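Worked example 3 (structure in, sequence out).
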């Protein structure tokens, strides 16, 4: 009994000491806490997310293998959970560096980079732990991701070049990467296989492969939104599932925001004669049924762009081997906490039929106050 009493008193003393320590920590002046955090997050931090990530034929049966924290949603999309909390500050300068390698597909293909909070994934799967086929399909089909679009090179015309780099400005997703909630990072490269006898990747089971890393420079402060809400990510369709040129979504924003903006990345697909790939369109952007801005998707594919010969002088809305440019539209005034809003993007006079479709990445970002 005496021994038990002694142990009980010791345990109580340790617990009380810990509580006092925690209490002292909680009672520290706010500026001391902030100073400690600032001191800890100086310099540059790099997170290698994917190395040698393989992509396979988008038309084929599953050929991938999950492992090392990498989860394949299908042959062309892979995700991995990371957290930069305590490693990078939300006001650091963030960039994503992607490198795509030629394997078995030499054409310019659809590529995506996206981010999804772990709490959203858990809600989608009802806290299911195993990523079975049904769970993967749910995540893949979930449209409100926050993301960016790029196009693979036309490797077939430049077979001597084995890989190309892409750089993404990730300042808008800083709060996702550094928040208390972990973040799933997704990279995709949709591809198939060439059958030309002179293609170096003939009979290669992979279409492309990729490396991806995120770098945060904590020494360079960058004004970042403290809140971001995804609206749309992927192909836009009408109620019947047919291709559409108009996206309309209703959202509810839980926080009071200032300096808010709508960011739109637009990518058209349709390679037939007069197809949407070979043109550019005016995009009208509306907030609560009032147009607040517009932009043209016109870009010039420069002479150094890895493209096929048939678009050497044509203006278009994306270029092979390049990131599809984002367009930012400011929202005037402030946004009230808990308020509901409608976001609309109309691609003027565009053809949305069986041969032409549009992929949009749309999100709202702003500063909480």
């Amino acid at each position: 009994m005496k021994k038990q009493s002694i142990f009980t008193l010791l345990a109580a003393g340790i617990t009380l000491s810990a509580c006092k320590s925690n209490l002292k920590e909680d009672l520290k002046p706010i500026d001391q806490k902030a100073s400690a955090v600032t001191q800890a997050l100086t310099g540059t931090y790099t997170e290698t997310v994917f190395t040698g990530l393989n992509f396979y034929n988008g038309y084929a049966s599953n050929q991938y293998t999950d492992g090392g924290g990498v989860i394949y949603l299908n042959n062309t999309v892979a995700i991995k959970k990371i957290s930069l909390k305590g490693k990078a500050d939300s006001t650091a300068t963030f960039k994503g560096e992607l490198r795509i390698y030629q394997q078995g597909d030499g054409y310019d293909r659809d590529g995506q980079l996206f981010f999804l909070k772990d709490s959203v994934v858990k809600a989608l799967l009802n806290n299911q732990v195993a990523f079975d086929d049904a769970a993967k399909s749910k995540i893949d089909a979930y449209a409100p991701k926050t993301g960016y679009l790029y196009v693979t090179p036309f490797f077939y015309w430049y077979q001597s070049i084995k890989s190309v780099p892409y750089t993404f400005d990730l300042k808008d997703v800083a709060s996702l990467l550094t928040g208390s909630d972990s973040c799933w990072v997704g990279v995709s490269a949709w591809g198939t296989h060439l059958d030309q006898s002179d293609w170096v990747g003939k009979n290669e089971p992979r279409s492309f492969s990729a490396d991806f890393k995120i770098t945060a420079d904590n020494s360079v402060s960058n004004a970042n939104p403290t809140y971001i809400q995804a609206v749309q990510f992927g192909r836009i369709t009408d109620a019947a599932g047919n291709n559409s040129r108009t996206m309309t979504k209703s959202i509810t924003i839980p926080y009071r925001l200032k300096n808010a903006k709508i960011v739109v990345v637009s990518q058209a697909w349709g390679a037939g004669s007069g197809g949407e790939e070979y043109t550019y369109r005016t995009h009208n952007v509306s907030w609560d049924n009032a147009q607040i801005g517009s932009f043209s998707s016109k870009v010039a594919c420069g002479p150094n762009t890895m493209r096929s010969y048939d678009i050497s002088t044509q203006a278009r809305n994306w270029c092979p081997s390049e990131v599809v440019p984002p367009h930012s539209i400011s929202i005037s005034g402030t946004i009230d906490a808990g308020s509901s809003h409608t976001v609309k993007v109309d691609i003027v006079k565009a053809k949305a039929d069986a041969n032409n479709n549009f992929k949009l990445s749309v999100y709202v970002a702003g500063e909480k106050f």
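Notes: The radius of gyration is 24 Å. Helices lie at 2-26, 30-40, 118-124, 133-141, 174-178.
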